[in-house]
Design brief:
Length: about 170
């Protein structure tokens, strides 16, 4: 995916972020992207959700190590509760961005081939199309590495949304 798809309908642009359990990568991306959107004045124009392809953690807060990494950089991880991805999520969002190729395969297996589904790091200015590694089974450093990827990719997504907004104003 080389650009954000056009919106499906009027109203807020809807972005879904998906990982495996919705306790590490996608909630970190959700919190960071939402904060970046707020800082850019786009919070009312863009809605962000996150979910996991597995249902093991539904209703639980994010992994404490993810929460600590976010809080250390001034983000508020407290509102997150894990939810499970549903095949209808693809049709309910303008774009679905997954954290790795296994998540991509799972989403496409549930929803079928879809041009609105891609990798989150398709927008990473450092490594386009790379995977966001799952830090769950590693040490605390992995959460910092994920946060760095998420921050720069979120900034690039906000830039893309701002460009879209300026273009829409011209048209």
């Amino acid at each position: 995916m080389d650009r954000l798809p056009d919106p499906r309908t009027e109203g807020p642009y809807r972005i879904a972020l998906v990982c495996l359990g919705n306790i590490c990568r996608s909630p970190m991306a959700h919190v960071v992207l939402a904060e970046h959107l707020d800082r850019a004045g786009l919070a009312g124009e863009v809605e962000v959700t996150s979910s996991g392809t597995g249902g093991w953690h539904v209703g639980r807060p994010m992994d404490p190590r993810a929460a600590v990494a976010l809080a250390a950089e001034g983000y508020d991880p407290s509102v997150h509760r894990a939810r499970q991805f549903a095949p209808t999520d693809v049709d309910a969002h303008d774009v679905v961005l997954v954290m790795d190729n296994a998540n991509l395969a799972d989403v496409l297996a549930d929803a079928g081939p879809h041009e609105r589904v891609g990798l989150f790091r398709d927008f990473d200015p450092v490594e386009r199309g790379g995977e966001v590694p799952d830090p769950y089974y590693g040490g605390d450093d992995g959460f910092g590495e994920v946060l760095s990827m998420v921050e720069r990719t979120s900034a690039a997504i906000v830039d893309a949304l701002q460009r879209r907004r300026r273009q829409d104003a011209v048209d």
